[in-house]
Amino acid sequence: MSNNYNNTKIKAMLQNINNQIKDSQLFVLSSKYKIRVNIPMTIIIYFLLWLFGIAIGGFINEITLNALPSQFTLNDNVCITLRKLIISGTQIIIFILWVRFVEKRPIKSIGFQTNRRLKSYCTGILVGFTSITVITIILIFIGQVTLEVNKVTLTSFLPIIGILSLGWIVQSASEEISIRGWLIPTLGTSRSPYFAIAMTSIIFGILHLFSSGVTILSFLNLTLSGIFFAGYAIYAENIIGVCGLHFAWNFALANIYGFSVSGFTANGETIF
Question: Which of 3, 12, 15 is CA-nearest to residue 193?
Answer without folding.
Answer: 15
